[in-house]
Write a structure and sequence with these properties.
- The protein has helices at residues 6-10, 23-34, 71-87, 116-130, 143-149, 171-184, 234-238, 312-325, 382-401, 421-430, 438-448, 452-461, 476-486, 491-498, 513-524, 528-544, and strands at 13-19, 39-42, 58-59, 93-102, 139-142, 158-168, 188-190, 193-201, 204-212, 218-228, 252-260, 269-273, 280-285, 291-295, 299-300, 336-344, 363-366, 372-375.
- The chain is of the alpha+beta class.
- The chain folds into three domains: 6-51 and 172-249 and 359-401, FAD/NAD(P)-binding domain (3-Layer(bba) Sandwich); 93-168 and 250-355, D-Amino Acid Oxidase, Chain A, domain 2, CATH 3.30.9; 421-544, Orthogonal Bundle (Helicase, Ruva Protein, domain 3).
Length: 552
């Protein structure tokens, strides 16, 4: 996918203009483009940078939402989880989870005693909603069987648990692959392009005033329907409309910490309640088998949406969970590999609910002058949110412009970029003949799926592209692919949302940042000063998400 200039966008009138390039916005753009609509998408930072690369990195049904009677949400999420095995198999990794049941803890139905019998009932419902194969059906483990497979767990008050499955994913790459699919279907997109105002014609919103944050260029982009998919920033865009002042969102903050498995010896993801306040928390072995991450907090947030990081209070809370889960570890700040934090764009509830009790259901609503908004939801249901907001947009296009006869959504059968099973199989067959180290090929296949062939093609056509960048199984061709095919505009884009190295290493990849920046600088024609600025900005971002000093 290629970044479209503001000048080119300003010269057209689109059917749909989508503001916000997270999982929902990119899903809506892909859906609309596959239906044949002309669509443009603007993102003020990088795709997925606000919320959609900072989740718990799961495709999951939302087991805990059963206790709130949100059966529709759980059923929908379970089905979408299973669908991802078809649409994005390279990003869908089934893993066993264990729901730990301790004395005194709430279960899925709070008015009943927390028993293994009731846990079995809840997990039976979860399996039924998923339609998952028999080999992934749940089973109930008593205390002895559970401790046999996880002997380090806290045995005090442990009743047993439920063994079931959810999926790990790379949320940042999911968003990028969705955006690539949208562009392949005809959508135009620009990251680092901010909306600074809404344009009205005859009392109806008909476009936006935008600024390219890289070049400083400004312009007006017009569309028959404007859609606001900006997550936590939904109200910020809504308030650009004259007369709109009511807040719709109550964002909550979620924080995660990363630990080494040697310090926190856990083999299965576990689902438990915090001993402090009963919130749901997941310690999860990462796709990198040497690491475990723990999340998440769930607290109302009112500080800057553009700089969300973990605080000492957040870290203390999660370390308390870790030390309860495996009491002998005695974990402290010195054991933390890294952290990340993001915001959930939750629709403002009625009354004074605890943050963790606010519904994750999404809502679609139209402003007085025709701005179409969607908020709430979760990563797993991004495809559903995308097609539903496009359905509503098509309804409005029919009412206001007489547009009729557009097809229904096609996204349930069209794989994401890199996710076509045939392309993945071709990539695997090609791999043995590619002149790269085996561990590099394994990483690229796992990370990019069927798009491995494109990176291998770059490496095969130019020996310089096949060179190692000195660590993390990186080669120059991956940087070239990120810049030329994935719209990576900054060093932070590459490490955080293209290669995903930021999350899983103590220094975030700073040991190779100079080589990565040099390669990106050559492709983007950066000056030496701009390259140095890119390195400094990424170093600051790593430091903001680490609780140990990062290398100079």
């Amino acid at each position: 996918m290629k970044r479209t200039s503001l000048q080119a966008l300003a010269g057209q009138t689109f059917d749909l203009l989508i503001i916000g390039g997270g999982a929902t916005g990119t899903s809506a753009a892909r859906d609309a483009a596959l239906r044949g609509l002309s669509v443009a998408l603007l993102e003020k930072n990088d795709f997925g940078s606000g919320t959609s690369s900072r989740s718990t990195k799961l495709f999951h049904g939302g087991l805990r939402y059963l206790e709130k009677f949100e059966f529709g949400l759980v059923r929908e999420a379970c089905r979408e989880r299973e669908l991802m095995l078809t649409l994005a198999p390279h990003l869908s990794h089934p893993r066993p989870f264990i729901y730990l049941l301790y004395n005194g803890y709430h279960m899925m139905f709070k008015w009943l005693p927390a028993t293994l019998l009731m846990l079995n009932a809840g997990l039976t419902m979860y399996d039924a909603f998923s339609g998952n194969p028999r080999e992934r059906h749940h089973k109930i483990l008593n205390k002895q069987k559970l401790l046999a497979i996880e002997p380090q767990l806290n045995p005090h008050g442990l009743k047993g648990g439920g063994y079931y499955y959810d999926f790990l994913t790379d949320d940042g790459r999911f968003t990028i692959e969705t955006m690539k699919g949208a562009c392949a279907a005809g959508a135009l997109a620009a990251n680092y392009t901010a909306v600074k105002g809404l344009v009205q014609d005859n009392g109806r919103i008909a476009g936006v005033e935008a600024v390219d944050l890289l070049s400083g260029q400004e312009g007006v982009i017009r569309a028959r329907q404007v859609i606001n998919t900006t997550g936590p920033w939904t109200d910020e865009i809504r308030f650009m409309e004259q007369g709109v002042k009511d807040k719709m969102l109550s964002p909550t903050k979620g924080v995660h910490i990363v630990l080494r498995k040697k310090d926190f010896p856990l083999n299965h993801a576990v689902f438990l309640q915090s001993p402090r306040d009963g919130r749901t928390v997941w310690p999860i072995p990462a796709l990198d088998s040497d690491l475990v991450y723990i999340g998440t907090t769930d607290t109302y947030y009112q500080d800057s949406f553009d700089h969300v990081v973990a605080t000492h209070n957040d870290i203390d809370y999660l370390l308390e969970v870790a030390n309860f889960t495996i009491p002998g570890c005695n974990l402290g700040y010195e054991h933390i590999v890294g952290t990340w934090a993001g915001l959930r764009p939750l629709v403002k509830p009625q009354g004074n609910l605890a943050a963790s009790s606010v519904s994750r259901e999404h809502e679609i609503f139209v402003s007085p002058n025709g701005l179409l908004n969607i908020a709430g939801g979760k990563l797993t249901t991004a495809r559903v949110m995308g097609y539903q907001v496009v359905d509503k947009a098509i309804e409005l296009l029919g009412e206001n412009f007489g547009v009729r006869g557009l097809p229904a959504t096609k996204t349930a059968t069209e794989p994401l970029s890199g996710g076509d099973a045939r392309d993945i199989e071709r990539a695997r067959q090609l791999a043995p003949g590619v002149n790269l180290p085996d561990d590099v090929k394994e990483r690229l296949l796992a990370h990019y799926g069927g798009n491995f062939t494109k990176i291998a093609g770059l490496a095969g056509a130019d020996a310089a592209a096949a060179r190692s960048l000195g660590g993390h199984k990186l080669i120059a061709a991956e940087i070239r692919y990120a810049v030329e095919d994935e719209m990576a505009m900054t060093v932070t884009d590459f490490f955080t949302r293209r290669a995903s190295i930021f999350y899983w290493t103590p220094d975030g990849g700073l040991d190779v940042v100079a080589d990565v920046a040099a390669e990106m600088g050559r492709l983007h024609s950066w000056t030496p000063a701009q390259t140095a600025q890119q390195i400094a900005a990424y170093r600051q971002w790593v430091a903001a998400n680490r609780f140990q000093p990062v290398p100079n």
